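Tutorial handout. Part one gives the primary structure; part two gives the three-dimensional structure as tokens.
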Amino acid sequence: MKFLIDAHLPRRIARRLIEAGHDALHTLDLPNGNRTTDNEILSVAARDQRVVITKDADFINSFHIKRQPEKLLLISTGNITNTDLEAALLPNIPAIVSAFGTNSLVELTRIALIVHI
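Part two.
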């Protein structure tokens, strides 16, 4: 699966996804780095058919209003350490990939993976 990780999340999430066999970019990998606008992120995600991974509420609003991005993984864990974020995210990657087979919005909380239908 192809992922695009937003600037609010650590770059090492992209590295961990790559290690797990996925295609992953962080905004730091894009020409404008962490100054990449939301519209540019949406454009890259649409062009490359990437799942956007973000904590940013702007993307959830865009998803509900415009259905952009086409697929969204919302991280709603609140403020946690990067290590705790990895511990929550990485074991759930197979379930996340499976969920995106038939759904467009998946949410990761501290305690659950929620597939929005």
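Part three, for discussion. Residues 38-48 form the longest helix (11 residues). Residues 2-116 form one domain.
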